[in-house]
Every structure is written in C-alpha cells, then in structure tokens.
Design goal:
Shape: globular
Number of strands: 9
Largest sheet: 9 strands, antiparallel
Structural class: mainly beta
Strand content: 35-45%
Distance between the termini: 27 Å
C-alpha cells in the first residue's frame, strides 16, 4: 500500500481487526495468484487525475510525467493535494512510484490475507462505467475488499472497504434478520485526464 496518511491508517485498521478476531496469519503460505490483475502504471499518461474520498477528507492526485526506466520498469511522477471542505487545495506534494513498486505492493498485500479471493465487478463512478478487480480477504463475520483497476487512477487503487455481517438478534423483534454494514476507508469519487480536467471540485465535497 502507498504511504499517504489515509492509507497508512488503513493498514492500522486492518491490524486492529485482525487482532480482534484472534486468527493467526497463515505465515509461509503462498500468496494468491495475482497474475490476472493487470498493472495500472503502464497505462498512466501525463495529466491523468483522480479524486479520492478518504477517512481524512479529499485528495487530488495528478500525473506529472511518465518515464520508461532501464530493465523495462516505468516511473510515474505525480502530485498529491489535500482538498479543504471549501474546495481550496493545499500545496501539491510530488511523489514517485514505479511499475515494479506496484507489483511488489500487490504481492505484499496478498501475503497478509488469510482467506483470499479474487473477483471482477462493474459499477459507476461520477456517471462513468468502470470495471475493477476485487481482492477480498474473507474472514468470519466480515470481508475486507481491495478494489483495483487498470482503466483509471494513478496507482490502480480504487477503493478499500470493510463489509461486516451483523447477525440477527433473536431477542429483538426489530432485528429478526442479519444486516450488512459497509465502511469505506477510501474510494474514488471522480477521475479524468488531460483532456477532461476537473471542474467545480466543490460538488464532490458534499
């Protein structure tokens, strides 16, 4: 996972959840096959942008340059800007990532999962139809979902959410069936490219 404040917090959330259910990680077990999850980095172009909603607020990321590296690697330089509730954007912070880093992060994530599954799903973001690969960590009572796509974003990360199943309470007539609760740690709310720059960013901040 990348090193933004919001996503570091997500790793801490995962550690707390894992310790709460007291299920040991399957250390030494092979990671799930992620060969079917195509990397995003080779498809990034200068001017690509994505707006995330995180647990800390909103963040805009914009690709500045894409440069081939020796050995077939690819380096993407992009900026990250926190967006204030009034729409004002903070000073951009420049970040660099590579194709090899993207692959390493996926493998590292997969190695932490206890019961991994991989699925394909489609949906809409800001009126645009998108498809994503969903890497799931299925545990007793809840599922952690990591959504990836090679169609948009800078690093392929679309969303992370925790889906919890709350069993029915047999002693409560108002709770006669189980409920599903979803907590989104971060999600893409808008994206585009150099030909479709973001406009009226305030409408996404509601």
């Amino acid at each position: 996972m990348r090193t933004s404040t919001a996503r570091l917090a997500l790793l801490l959330v995962m550690a707390v959840v894992a310790s709460a259910v007291s299920v040991p990680a399957f250390a030494g077990q092979p990671a799930p096959n992620l060969g079917s999850v195509p990397p995003r980095t080779p498809k990034v172009r200068e001017g690509d942008w994505v707006l995330y909603k995180t647990t800390d607020g909103f963040r805009l990321e914009t690709a500045v340059s894409v440069e081939p590296q020796e050995g077939g690697d690819i380096m993407v330089t992009y900026t990250m800007q926190d967006v204030q509730p009034n729409g004002r954007m903070d000073e951009p912070m420049e970040v660099v990532r590579t194709l090899s880093q993207e692959r390493e992060e996926l493998v590292a994530l997969a190695q932490t999962l206890q019961n991994p599954r991989l699925d394909r799903r489609a949906g809409q973001i800001d009126g645009k139809r998108v498809s994503a690969y969903v890497l799931m960590d299925v545990r007793e009572g809840f599922v952690v979902e990591y959504w990836y796509s090679d169609e948009f974003t800078i690093d392929g990360q679309v969303m992370m959410q925790i889906v919890t199943t709350v069993p029915a309470d047999p002693d409560s007539p108002e709770s006669d069936e189980e409920k599903v609760e979803t907590d989104k740690m971060f999600e893409v709310v808008a994206f585009g490219n150099a030909r479709s720059p973001i406009k009226n960013i305030r409408r996404y901040l509601r």
